[in-house]
From TrEMBL:
<dbReference type="GO" id="GO:0005737">
    <property type="term" value="C:cytoplasm"/>
</dbReference>
<dbReference type="Pfam" id="PF00106">
    <property type="entry name" value="adh_short"/>
</dbReference>
<protein>
    <submittedName>
        <fullName>Uncharacterized protein</fullName>
    </submittedName>
</protein>
<dbReference type="InterPro" id="IPR036291">
    <property type="entry name" value="NAD(P)-bd_dom_sf"/>
</dbReference>
<keyword id="KW-0560">Oxidoreductase</keyword>
<dbReference type="InterPro" id="IPR051468">
    <property type="entry name" value="Fungal_SecMetab_SDRs"/>
</dbReference>
<dbReference type="InterPro" id="IPR002347">
    <property type="entry name" value="SDR_fam"/>
</dbReference>
<keyword id="KW-0521">NADP</keyword>
<dbReference type="GO" id="GO:0016491">
    <property type="term" value="F:oxidoreductase activity"/>
</dbReference>
<comment type="similarity">
    <text>Belongs to the short-chain dehydrogenases/reductases (SDR) family.</text>
</comment>
Length: 166
């Protein structure tokens, strides 16, 4: 139980408290800026519909802490809207980071392939992992195009609102 608790606490500090602390620390500078955009990196793992559709029973700490970050981001969106901020959660897509995984790169690449196959089998959606460079380029394009109407949304790396298949 101690190991489980430690894993959850670590994930919570990184994925849930991390964005809150960063936003809070930089808010005075953001308020003084002409560009009032706050983007928190999210994950479809935070969505219960995706979990059910894809039958995901693993990564509980990650999913739960990303869900907490999603809600916190939405709260900031509501709180800062009258100041002209656009606050969103942005999913980077499924990124193939196996090249940075060291000795586990082959296992990670195989895991991504298995996950892509599972998504296609369960939802009919073809998911191709993005390179880190492609993901970042797509995210920057979304961030550049943010408008007040996007405030509070959970967006995909394509710019579309995140809408899981049930």
């Amino acid at each position: 139980m101690e190991e489980l608790d430690a894993a959850f606490i670590s994930a919570y500090k990184i994925n849930s408290l991390g964005p809150i602390h960063v936003i809070t620390a930089f808010l005075p500078l953001l308020r003084a800026s002409d560009t009032k955009k706050i983007v928190v990196i999210g994950s479809g793992a935070a969505d219960p519909k995706s979990t059910r559709a894809l039958r995901l029973s693993t990564t509980v700490a990650y999913a739960r802490t990303k869900a907490a970050a999603l809600l916190a981001t939405t709260k900031f969106a509501v709180k800062l809207e009258d100041e002209g901020f656009v606050v969103v959660t942005l999913s980077p897509g499924m990124v193939d980071c196996s090249a940075t995984a060291g000795a586990d790169s082959e296992a990670l690449a195989a895991s991504l392939k298995d996950f892509s196959t599972s998504v296609k089998d369960r939802t009919g959606i073809e998911v191709t992992p993005l390179t880190p460079e492609a993901s970042v380029a797509a995210q920057l394009q979304v961030i550049d195009g943010l408008q007040p109407s996007h405030n509070g949304l959970f967006l995909q790396h394509t710019g579309a609102e995140y809408r899981p298949r049930s």
